[in-house]
Amino acid sequence: MSATKPILNMAAYAIIIVLILMLGLAVLKARSAANDNTEIIDAAAQMAQDNKTALDGIDNTIDGRIDLTAKVLGAKITSLQTQTLRMQQQLAELEKKLNDSQSASSDLKWVVNPVTRHRYSVIPYPLPWHYAREYAEKNGGHLVVIGDEVENEWVVSTFGGDTEYWMGLTDEAEEGKWVAVNGETQEYFNWAKPEPDNYRKYQHYAIINSKAPHLGQTEPGKWNDVPCNEVRIGIIEQTVQTMPAYTRTRILP
């Protein structure tokens, strides 16, 4: 019995030592896991902080852009108000000129076309299309309506090919359907290529002698469609009322 007891004691010690080692390993693993979790938590906290910093930066950027946009919009509104005031003043001046157009009609210099027997004159100052149309009507005519190539060439040779003139042709009622202001059916056209293109969807009024070098439009007598609010000189066309032929009455004896 005395020999067995030391063996048992040694076995017990060995078991205790193994248990202690296993416990130590477990503690080490637990500590390692805790350290890993701590690192994960620290990394998550750092990421959250970084995200907060980024969001704060975005907020500051947005606030700055909002302030800048507000300033830009304010400046544009002020500019538009100034332009509106200027346009109102210009319109008032144009209306005054139109009201005085009857007295100015004596200043118009008329030229008779030997083919059409109509007479033509240029408006003495540039106007938007509708104002030019009204001026022509107040002076007993209408904006020029060109019916064929011969008349087109005569207008260019008489009034020059370097100035863009308003014509009495519009498709404001229906896009692509060009109507003459005097009610005649318009069958002749002399558009410059690639006109009429209705650029930006509001070009509904015709001019002659289109000048657009970037599009190759330099040839005199070619037509173009443009917006009505641009100011140009218009050509007035007026029908000449011919007197009936004099008939001599023969008196019989």
CATH topology grouping of the largest domain: Mannose-Binding Protein A, Chain A
| Average pLDDT score | 82
CATH architecture of the largest domain: Roll
Query: Unreliable segments (pLDDT under 50, ≥5 consecutive)?
Result: 242-253
Strand content: 5-15%
Number of extended strands: 8
Radius of gyration: 45 Å
Shape: rod-shaped
Largest sheet: 8 strands, mixed
SS content category = alpha+beta
Q: How far is the first residue's CA from the last residue's CA?
A: 191 Å
The helix content, as a percent range, equals 40-55%
Summarize the structure.
The chain has helices at 4-99, 101-104, 129-138, 149-159, and strands at residues 111-112, 118-122, 142-143, 165-170, 179-180, 205-208, 223-226, 233-239. By secondary structure, it is of the alpha+beta class.
Task: Walk me through what this model shows.
Strands 1, 2, 3, 4, 5, 6, 7 and 8 form an eight-stranded mixed sheet that branches. This protein has two domains: 1-70; 100-239, Mannose-Binding Protein A, Chain A (Roll), CATH 3.10.100.10. A hairpin with an 8-residue loop joins strand 4 and strand 5. With 253 residues, the chain is α+β, with helices and mostly antiparallel strands. It is built from four helices and eight strands; from the N terminus they run ααββαβαβββββ.
Features:
single chain; 253 residues; alpha+beta; Mannose-Binding Protein A, Chain A; 8 strands; 13% strand; rod-shaped; disordered C terminus
